[in-house]
Amino acid sequence: MGASSRRRRGVTGADFRDNHAGQALRSERDDRIRRRGRRRPGNGPVSDYNGRVMAKQDEGEGGRVAAVQSVDRALLVMEIIAKLGQAGVTEIAAELGVHKSTVSRLITVLESRGYVEQLSDRGKYRLGFSIVRLAGSTSAQLDLVGQSQGTCNMLAAESGETTTMAVLDGNRIINIVEAMGTGSVALRTWVGRSCPAHATSSGKALLAALESSEVRRRFGGKLETYTDNTLASVADLTAQLDEIRANGWASVREELEIGLNAVGAPVRDHTGSVVAALSVSGPSYRLGPDRFAEVAQLVAVGAAGISRRMGYRG
User: Fold this and answer.
1) Contact status, residue 132 vs residue 115, Cβ threshold 8 Å
2) Res 248: pLDDT
3) Statement: the pTM of the whole predicted model exceeds 0.90
4) Domains of the chain by residue range
């Protein structure tokens, strides 16, 4: 940086020297921290599971710093176990670069809270059920992928049409599993695609699990339309949801796209809550209204099977 540039910015020579001096001091301090870390791996910087280095905190902050470090290490312990599937104290200590006694204390607390559990046959630890409870809907989605892919494959083969699993996200759905039917010629995938809930069979099956007041809250006033068949008002939607609750399944006739029909049914978890919806979709010339009842039976059976694997006993 030239002198004229410094003058334009109002930076004096003293300011410039002070800035460089400050940088030198900070660099020297950082070097000391790194050197301490290399000499004392048990108490120095710890790398997290994304490769970030966490420098040892100023010990003057006392117990507050120690508490934060303990929380951070406890999270790292769970990340390590998640990556390895199961791990012993020695393995975890080696990964963290801390003493085994430190890991043992962390494991004791995590185990008491249900976040890890010991495998009695080998003395190693795996993640506990509290992780699933804490993760909530995200874990439910991950469980759904594993529990539903086989059913989607069988349903696609049986119906000949594309089968998907979707979860509710506000007033839209996100498709998380897909299986292509034998009659499908589409090259696109629905996985990861967000669609309006009120214009899809999966979305309607999911919305039917909500109170009408909650449906109104999510949509507000007018609904966005995509074809002439798309429901245009929340009043029409809530009325149709009453019918879906009574029938146990939902259908759409060219409401999202012209020429595309679909039938969907809800999937429940171990609490009885609707957490996803299974659907079959296909071209209107193959999946017409005359097939809705037949396909709905297949979808309902498939959804019930996934629900049972998710722990539902209703």
Assistant:
1) no
2) 95
3) no
4) 3-39, 46-134, 137-309
> Is the Cα dihedral 273, 277, 278, 280 positive or negative?
positive
User: Which is more confident, 3 or 98?
Assistant: 98
Q: N- to C-terminal Cα distance for the chain?
A: 74
Distance CA 32, CA 19 (A): 20
> So what's the pLDDT on residue 45?
42
Q: What is the dihedral of CA 285, 276, 313, 251, to 10 degrees?
A: -30
* Whole-number average pLDDT of the chain: 80
Residues 6 or more apart from 159 whose CB is under 8 A from it? 181, 280, 282, 295, 298
Give, in words, the CATH class of 46-134: mainly alpha
- Is residue 257 scored above 80 in pLDDT? yes
Q: What CATH number was assigned to the domain covering residues 137-309?
A: 3.30.450.40
- Annotate the chain with three-state secondary structure: CCHHHHHHCCCCHHHHHHHHHHHHHHHHHHHHHHHHHHHCCCCCCEECCCCCEECCCCHHHCHHHHHHHHHHHHHHHHHHHHHHCCECHHHHHHHHCCCHHHHHHHHHHHHHCCCEEEECCCCEEEECHHHHHHHCHHHHHHHHHHHHHHHHHHHHHHHCCEEEEEEEECCEEEEEEEECCCCCCCCCCCCCCEEEHHHCHHHHHHHCCCCHHHHHHHHCCECCCCCCCCCCEHHHHHHHHHHHHHHCCEEEECCCCCCEEEEEEEEECCCCCEEEEEEEEEECCCCCHHHHHHHHHHHHHHHHHHHHHCCCCC
Please compute the mean of the pLDDT values over residues 118-134 and round it to a whole number.
Answer: 76
- Asked if the model's pLDDT at residue 11 lies above 50, the reply is no
Confidence band of 69 (pLDDT split at 50, 70, 90): confident
